[in-house]
Specification:
It comes from Fusibacter ferrireducens. Belongs to the CapA family. By secondary structure, the chain is of the alpha/beta class. The protein has two domains: 4-152 and 225-318 and 353-433, Metallo-dependent phosphatases (Purple Acid Phosphatase, chain A, domain 2); 173-216, no CATH class. It has eleven helices and 22 strands. The strands form four sheets. Strands 1, 2, 3, 4, 17, 18, 19, 20, 21 and 22 form a ten-stranded mixed β-sheet that branches. The protein has a six-stranded mixed β-sheet with strand order 6-7-13-14-16-15. It is globular, with a radius of gyration of 22 Å. The chain starts with a strand and ends in a 5-residue tail after the last strand.
Length: 434
């Protein structure tokens, strides 16, 4: 097999049209077009507000007008991972409408579908040098976001290819007994206890408060992936590696370990390595809107998060009443009023987090089933710009590039990953990890 070149980004949350004459966009376009595969995480829905919103969202009710997809294709993207925590912001109708527009634009996309078989199946891009498969997975979302299996007697449900997970919080026995005493003084757990008595939920070992589970053990929290979901995804990887030359797994996941969100939860790391064990050439993570560390596992790359590529969640054209209710605003207020209230005029949240506006683009080649080197190209997203320009990618200048790469080196240190900086780009030599 000749070398297949791949370039990938983190989250694309584009809500404004891209100016095709902008020199920074043109630089990125030229860089993308030098690769066979150009992948982004499509954290968007497409419609003209002819659909109703869900009662809850992934944070912002994300949506853009359908012509946005023309800009992303113009920029060079030819593969889209679509399973995200925003996929059902506008209900099942919003998801199906998005799929209609992606199909009309002849996009290759994965992770969403009219049923689970569609959402989980690999999607393929044929390049001059070989075929590349994409499997898109999401772990952050509501329990009703998961696509439904088709049955002989029941229609499948639209949704996402979801990898659910379980959390167990461990405490000493004395602490759990004290927790039980406190809980039993109120009705906070009455509903859970009733559902257990009536057989609507399974009793948990240990002690459960609602869906939060406690066990006796060394203090801490452990997360594990849902085995049924993992088995389904492993089957898709096996299918993909028999049908394609390269297999990519894209995973949208916000969950983290400890007080800060730059360290992935236990189940994320276990799942990433499972994907590589089963034949994936690369695991590409995104979701938390910041960078997470990179790992080399069995001489294949794991990118726990590539951060943002485009982030314009304060520029969505319209929001439903539930969004305004959060900030005690009424129908006389505008989206800008709500976005300003959320960020306290740009002083808190993502709008005030420089790390959400500094990221990387990664590229590598797969030749004869092997990857020798990963190139890491830092980008900035206009952190100090006005809202009208904020969130668009620019190749980082040398000072910003070195700072971003040094931060990534620190995040990757726990995996023993060596990243060398040369001329403002990072490089990982996978052959050094034999």
């Amino acid at each position: 097999m000749m070398a297949i070149s791949i370039i990938a980004t983190g989250d694309t949350l584009l809500t404004q049209r891209l100016p095709h004459t902008d020199e920074e966009c043109l630089k990125i376009k030229r860089m993308f077009e030098a690769s066979d595969v150009r992948l982004t995480n499509f954290e968007l829905l497409l419609h003209d507000f002819e659909v109703s919103p869900s009662a809850v969202s992934g944070g912002t009710w994300v949506v853009a007008r359908p012509p946005i997809i023309k800009d992303l294709k113009w920029l060079g993207f030819n593969m889209f991972s679509c399973a995200t925590n925003h996929s059902l912001d506008w209900g099942h109708e919003g998801l199906l409408t998005t799929m209609k527009h992606l199909d009309h634009a002849e996009c290759i996309y994965a992770g969403i579908g009219k049923n689970m078989a569609e959402a989980c199946q690999p999607q393929y891009l044929d390049t001059p040098e070989g075929r590349v498969a994409l499997i898109s997975v999401c772990s952050t979302g509501k329990d009703w976001h998961i696509a439904g299996e088709q049955r002989p007697d029941v229609k499948g449900r639209p949704g996402i290819n979801m990898l659910r997970f379980n959390s167990i919080h461990y405490l000493p026995k004395s602490d759990i007994e004290a927790l039980k005493d406190i809980v039993n003084k109120t009705d906070v757990n009455a509903r859970r206890m009733q559902l257990e008595r009536e057989g609507f939920v399974k009793p948990e070992t240990g002690f459960a408060i609602g869906n939060t589970r406690f066990e006796v053990g060394n203090t801490g929290t452990v997360t594990t992936y849902n085995q049924k979901d993992a088995d389904r995804i492993v089957k898709a990887i096996d299918e993909a590696k028999r049908q394609a030359d390269v297999v990519l797994v894209s995973h949208h996941v916000h969950e983290f370990k400890g007080p800060e969100k730059d360290i992935s939860a236990d189940f994320v790391r276990d799942f990433a390595r499972l994907c590589i064990d089963c034949g994936a050439h690369a695991y590409i993570g995104h979701g938390p809107h910041i960078l997470r560390g990179f790992e080399v596992y069995k001489q294949r790359p794991i990118f726990y998060s590539l951060g943002d590529f485009i982030i314009q969640n304060d520029s969505v054209e319209r929001q439903p009443t539930e969004f305004y209710d959060i900030y005690d605003l009424d129908s006389g207020h505008t989206p800008s009023d709500a976005f300003d209230a959320r960020s306290k005029n740009g002083t808190k949240g993502l709008a005030a987090n420089r790390k959400a506006f500094e990221s990387v683009i990664i590229s590598f080649e797969v030749e004869n089933n092997a990857i020798d080197c990963v190139k890491i190209m830092p980008i900035t997203l206009g952190f100090k710009e006005k809202r009208s320009r904020k969130g668009r990618p620019t190749i980082a200048n040398e000072t910003d590039a070195v700072r971003i790469l040094n931060d990534l080196i620190q995040l990757s240190d726990e995996y023993g990953t060596i990243i060398e900086i040369v001329d403002g780009c990072g490089y990982i030599n996978l052959n050094a990890f034999e």
